[in-house]
């Protein structure tokens, strides 16, 4: 019978709490967070990603730590709704700007998702049961 190798040792909760705080302060940079809590360079390179996975930040604090606040996202969506795309005009030998319809449509879809207005709510439908009887005597 083969012996299983023990897995990597789980860090203690105090170290994880320190790492989580440093991870948020460094803008979600696991390597820098590991160095900040006192890991050696080689240990930080080898284990920072594991610590980040264990910490498992929720999306909202992670977005805020990265500087993606609600105001920033709203401004960015507004910019995307007004997006332009350059196209070469050979007659004028210059670039002309046109609305980027595809990008603007995707931005509007995302705004609708944020507002919970897309996709439209679907009514609940009871599943129907259909019984099919095949009479083998007539074959």
Layout: helices, strands, pairs:
Blueprint: H1 13-25, H2 30-36, H3 41-55, H4 59-65, H5 70-81, E1 84-89, E2 94-99, H6 101-114
Antiparallel strand pairs: 1-2
Helix pairs in contact: 1-2, 1-3, 2-3, 5-6
Instruction: Please state how the strands of the largest beta sheet are arranged side by side.
Output: 1-2
- For the secondary structure, the number of strands is 2
User: Helix share of residues?
Assistant: 40-55%
Amount of beta strand = 5-15%
List the defining traits of the structure above.
two-stranded antiparallel sheet; 6 helices; 2 domains; mainly alpha; 139 residues; single chain; 9% strand
Task: Summarize the entry for a quick read.
The chain has 139 residues and is mainly α.
Q: What does it look like?
A:
- The structure is a single chain.
- The protein is about 50% helix and about 10% strand.
- The longest helix is centred in the middle third of the chain and has 15 residues, at about 40-55.
- It is mainly α.
- The protein is built from six helices and two strands; from the N terminus they run αααααββα.
- It starts with 12 loop residues before the first helix and ends in a 25-residue tail after the last helix.
- A hairpin with a 4-residue loop joins β1 and β2 (about 95-100).
- The protein has helices at about 15-25, 30-35, 40-55, 60-65, 70-80, 100-115; strands spanning about 85-90, 95-100.
- Strands 1-2 form a two-stranded antiparallel ribbon.
- It has two domains: about 15-65; about 70-115, no CATH class.
- α1 (about 15-25) crosses α3.
- The mean pLDDT is about 85.
């Amino acid at each position: 019978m083969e012996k299983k190798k023990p897995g990597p040792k789980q860090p203690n909760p105090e170290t994880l709490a320190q790492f989580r705080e440093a991870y948020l302060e460094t803008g979600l940079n696991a390597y820098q967070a590991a160095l900040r809590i006192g890991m050696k360079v080689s240990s930080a390179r080898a284990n920072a990603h594991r610590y980040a996975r264990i910490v498992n930040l929720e999306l909202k604090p992670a977005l805020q730590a990265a500087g993606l606040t609600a105001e920033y996202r709203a401004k960015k969506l507004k910019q995307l709704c007004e997006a332009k795309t350059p196209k070469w005009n050979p007659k004028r030998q210059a670039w002309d700007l046109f609305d980027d319809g595809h990008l603007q449509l995707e931005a509007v879809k995302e705004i609708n998702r944020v507002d919970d207005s897309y996709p439209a709510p679907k009514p609940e439908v009871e599943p129907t049961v259909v019984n099919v009887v095949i009479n083998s005597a007539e074959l």
